[in-house]
Model the fold of this input.
Amino acid sequence: MATPISAASAYANIAKLTSASPLAGGEEGGSSFASVLKQAIGAVAETGQKSDAQTRAVATGKANMVDVVTAVSETEVAIDAVVAVRDKIIAAYQDIMKMPI
Done:
């Protein structure tokens, strides 16, 4: 279960990513959708790596179990957000494909 702190940090990360104005276009000074998506996936991968590092540290006795649980919950929230975005993208693509020409 996600803690309020991990949920707040996930929302802050999403707000930071969406403030890059992905709809402005790549060449006109804004970020392209692909670059924003790449940054989001990179952030999720980085969160997963931190979680793995915390898990290894607790196995060697150098970390606190609370830190591991927090890192794993943050990773879970980040992955849930990426999956939700993926589902919305797939739904939008399917809606577009259903449109008559």
Observations:
- Residues 4-98 form one domain.
- The radius of gyration is 17 Å.
